[in-house]
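Customer escalation, tier 2.

The customer says the design service returned an amino acid string that "doesn't look like it belongs to this structure." They asked us to rerun it and document both sides in this ticket. The original structure tokens are below, unchanged.
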């Protein structure tokens, strides 16, 4: 992975971690389905507006059909489950649960893409999970397991996200990653509008300006640019390397939820954050390639 790609990907994970708190802010104004419909509808419109300037060819034939199906899986089913699970629980708990996604995605990449997971990445995953346990304060007397149902709903969305990355990678080797994301969003938006378009558009008319601002943030930065850049990165590298960066989301997500939504902090979150950062350093230490090193390898 190029250093610039890593920096941008880490920055995107900060924004992605904020979506859980943003969804909480939007809950008084929109149902979970409405948040999903507006977010991905706006994100899809942004990419379609830029279509003439998007590089590369669009998916065709069977790849086009797979693109549309994957859009339905992740941007209709997956994110409706995620927003609903977040609504039934807390933003902090949902942030901690995000640490499960790298494990699911890495396992799927190893099975279906034949990616090798080395010792350093395994150690990175172990440190990441240790940090998540510390973030959650599992040793504290007041620790409580959150509702199993809410957690199960939220975690089930990771299967959809994993399918999008793992099944999408072969497609983007033959087509433009940005056009792949644009078409998957377009297919999902049609389905979302059929599901709850009338109610969502009615609620959208009465949204305050601040709600629209947050919707634009998660639509343009977290969706249009975020998913597009994610596929640009995994087209050139391994999925299980890129997915390690998701371990940053529990750290930032808990901090944002605590500060923004007014929940108290504890020392375990500091030590947990340090463990996760150490896990990222160990897991990614041999994956960062400068252009000079790449040229040397070519020679």
């Amino acid at each position: 992975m190029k250093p610039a790609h890593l920096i941008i990907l880490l920055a995107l994970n900060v924004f992605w971690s904020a979506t859980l708190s943003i969804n909480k802010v939007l809950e008084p104004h929109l149902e979970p389905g409405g948040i999903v419909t507006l977010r991905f509808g706006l994100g899809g419109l942004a990419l379609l507006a830029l279509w003439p300037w998007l590089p590369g060819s669009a998916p065709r034939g069977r790849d086009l059909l797979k693109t549309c199906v994957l859009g339905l899986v992740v941007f209709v089913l997956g994110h409706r489950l995620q927003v609903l699970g977040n609504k039934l629980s807390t933003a902090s708990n949902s942030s901690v649960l995000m640490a499960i996604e790298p494990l699911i995605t890495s396992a799927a990449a190893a099975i279906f893409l034949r990616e090798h997971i080395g010792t350093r990445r395994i150690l990175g995953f172990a440190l990441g999970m240790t940090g998540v346990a510390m973030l959650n304060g599992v040793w504290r007397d007041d620790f409580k397991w959150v509702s199993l149902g809410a957690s199960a709903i939220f975690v089930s969305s990771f299967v959809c996200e994993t399918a999008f990355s793992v099944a999408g990678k072969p497609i983007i080797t033959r087509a433009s990653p940005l056009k792949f994301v644009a078409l998957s969003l377009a297919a999902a938006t049609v389905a979302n509008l059929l599901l709850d378009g009338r109610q969502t558009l009615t609620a959208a008319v009465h949204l305050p300006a601040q709600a629209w601002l947050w919707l634009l943030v998660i639509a343009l930065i977290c969706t249009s640019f975020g998913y597009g850049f994610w596929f640009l990165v995994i087209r050139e590298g391994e999925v299980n390397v890129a997915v390690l960066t998701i371990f940053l989301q529990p750290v930032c997500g808990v901090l944002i939820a605590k500060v923004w939504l007014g929940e108290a902090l504890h020392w375990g979150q500091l030590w947990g954050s340090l463990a996760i950062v150490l896990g990222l350093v160990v897991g990614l230490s041999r994956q960062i390639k400068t252009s000079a090193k790449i040229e040397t390898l070519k020679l």
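Tier 2 assessment: The sequence is consistent with the input. The chain has 13 helices and no strands. The first helix runs from residue 3 to 26. Sent an explanation to the customer and offered a walkthrough call.
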